[in-house]
Design goal:
By secondary structure, the chain is an alpha+beta fold. Helices cover 51% and strands 9% of the residues. The protein folds into four domains: 86 residues, Phosphorylase Kinase, domain 1 (2-Layer Sandwich); 204 residues, Transferase(Phosphotransferase) domain 1 (Transferase(Phosphotransferase), domain 1), CATH 1.10.510.10; 118 residues, no CATH class; 106 residues.
């Protein structure tokens, strides 16, 4: 289950879109050319064989419950199958958002929109109830609002099929506490009227922005559902409140008998045809009177069945007085409106909608603030400790590196002078590879340049011009300030040029010799020697230009001019050499 399969049955899996008790994928049905949602059964690891079998039975029951139904307000189930041990069902793909998302983003809905959604859900429930399916988990999360404006009931995972044996044992409770009916809470057998109670809770929440039965835990919520009476939301129309209040009766017999009956009641309330039947505001007895029956308006409503005495009605048979209901009307005590018409009196007052319920409680917010502050302080301290440790480790590493590099420099400088020169060169090169700092490398390179210069001189004496060029060039590269080494390299190039029969190679050697003398002139401190090396460099560049003009002036024109410019810069001012250079420049223009 860690990664989506490529296919399940005839459906090509596109991506995973949800995961709770089961896994839901977006998929494509190539046979029917449509996008579908595929829900795969996910059995928790470590489940026993009976537990696994019960999960499979409930999953199959969900497919059967939804597959039995065909209504615009109910999500359609296309098929149920099993492949390679994976049990799945294919369903209608629904876009848009859930009613829970809608309530959380808006705070509450306009009454007209809330009633419209409730009627669509009730019409779907009426169809389901007629087919023997009781949903048992009506809540905003299981109501989908599509982008095309449709309202769809989803998730028949704990539905009750009246035409099949019940999978729920006596006293076993399934559902979401805030939306469960009283009989569902105590584990009694339920019927269609339980779904109507849950839908009334959803309608109340849509209009008020809060649930009618509040609590911090399952116990307090359950106690409120069994014993408390919901307050009248200021923004709920009186006719709608009358319908909601009846659907929230504790006794199932006191509610609407069918979803269709509740639909008609809501339509009448919206059209203004229904009497206002608030049990807390109508037929108000005088102080000291005894309540012996239902309010007259409800008693006259078709299908109304009074609750058994003392079963759910708190305070039955006791003296009571009628409370003031915000938004109600003025009427004499005990007044019954004739023919369902509203009582005379002032128009209903406008009450602003209640503030949106905060996402978290104030004490929870304070705790989170303290936790965040503590986290920031501890995180800052830990960060400073980490930075200090890193700085200390870096300092120790630098100290250790400095010690190692200092040892490498001392070892390079204190080699045995009686050891063979090649061995000393190799050892110094090895020490050079051990250091990284520029200062340490520069010190070792100076030692290496001196040894390479000595090696080059010895090879010159032996007549090995190629070997001498290699070591002298490396010596100048490792220590450019070695004036004598640069002069020796220039002399070596000049002699090789004199002995080179090939003009092209001779031209390159003239250039190399001129650059070597120029490098020596750059670092020598004696003015007379500096001018001597600059003049030697200029003469070699003139020799290069003259031979290049003899070779092929057109192909060497740019190189000749650059060489002559460099030579003119290095030649003594007003000297015959400078005049010769100027004449050559005129000839190549």
């Amino acid at each position: 289950m860690s990664s989506p399969p490529a296919t399940l049955g005839q459906y090509q899996i596109i991506r995973e879109i949800a995961r709770s008790n089961d896994i839901v994928y977006e998929a494509y049905d190539a046979l029917m050319n449509r996008r579908v949602a595929v829900k795969e059964l996910a059995v928790p690891p470590g489940s026993t064989a009976p537990q696994r079998e019960e999960r499979i039975q409930r999953f199959r029951r969900e497919a059967q419950a939804a597959g039995t139904l065909n209504h615009p307000s109910i999500m359609t189930v296309y098929s149920f199958g099993e492949e390679s041990g994976r049990i799945f069902m294919a369903m209608e793909f629904l876009d848009g958002r859930t009613l829970r998302n809608e309530i959380e983003s808006a705070g509450f809905l306009p009454p007209e929109r809330a009633v419209e959604i409730a009627i669509a859900v009730l019409e779907g429930l009426q169809h389901a109830h007629q087919k023997g399916v009781i949903h048992r988990d009506i809540k905003p999360e299981n109501i989908q609002l599509t982008s095309s404006g449709q309202v769809k009931i989803t998730d028949f995972g704990i539905a009750r099929l009246t035409f099949q044996p019940n999978l729920t044992l006596d006293g076993q409770v399934f559902g979401t506490p805030s939306y469960m009916s009283p009989e569902q809470i105590v584990g009694r057998d339920i019927d269609a009227r339980s779904d109507l109670f849950s839908l009334a809770v959803v309608l109340y929440e849509m209009i008020a922005g809060i649930k009618p039965f509040a609590g911090d835990n399952v116990v307090s919520i359950s106690h409120a559902i069994m014993n408390a009476e919901p307050t009248v939301p200021a923004q709920m129309p009186r006719g709608v409140w009358s319908v909601v209040r009846r659907a929230l009766e504790k006794a199932p017999a006191s509610r609407y008998a069918t979803a269709g009956e509740m639909v008609q009641a809501l339509k009448d309330a919206v059209a203004g045809n229904a009497p206002y039947a608030d049990p807390t505001a109508l037929a108000m007895p005088s102080a000291g009177a005894v309540i012996n029956g239902p309010p007259p308006v409800l008693a006259a409503t078709p299908g109304y069945a009074p609750a058994p005495p003392g079963m759910y009605a708190p305070g039955a048979g006791q003296a009571t007085s009628a409370p003031y209901v915000p938004g109600g009307y003025s009427a004499p005590v005990g007044y019954v409106p004739p023919n369902g018409m509203p009582a005379p009196g002032p128009l209903p007052q406008y009450y602003p909608p209640p503030p949106r319920v905060p996402l978290i409680k104030p004490e929870t917010g304070d705790f989170l603030k303290r936790a965040l502050l503590t986290f920031l302080i501890v995180g800052t301290l830990l960060g400073l400790i980490v930075v200090a440790c890193m700085a200390l480790a870096d300092a120790i590493a630098r100290y250790g590196m400095a010690e190692r590099e200092g040892e490498a420099v001392r070892a390079a400088k204190n080699l045995d002078p009686n050891a063979p020169l090649d061995d000393r060169i190799q050892e110094v090169q090895r020490r050079l590879n051990m250091v990284q700092s520029q200062d340490s490398r520069a010190e070792i390179q100076r030692v290496l340049a001196e040894l390479q210069d000595a090696k080059g001189r010895s090879l010159v004496q032996k007549g090995d011009a190629a070997g001498a060029e290699f070591y002298l060039s490396d010596s100048v590269r490792n220590d450019p300030t070695r004036v004598d080494t640069a002069v020796r390299l220039g002399d070596l190039y000049w002699r090789k040029a004199q002995e080179q029969p090939d003009r092209r190679q001779r031209l390159d050697l003239y250039r190399e010799a001129g650059e070597a003398y120029a490098r020596a002139a750059q670092w020598v401190t004696d003015p007379m020697r500096r001018q001597e090396y600059r003049t030697a460099s200029a003469q070699l560049l003139v020799s290069y230009a003259q031979e290049a003009l003899e070779e092929n002036p057109a192909s060497f024109r740019l190189e000749i001019r650059q060489a002559l410019y460099d030579a003119r810069e290095r030649a003594p001012a007003n000297s015959p050499l400078e005049q010769q250079i100027q004449a050559l420049l005129s000839s190549v223009r």
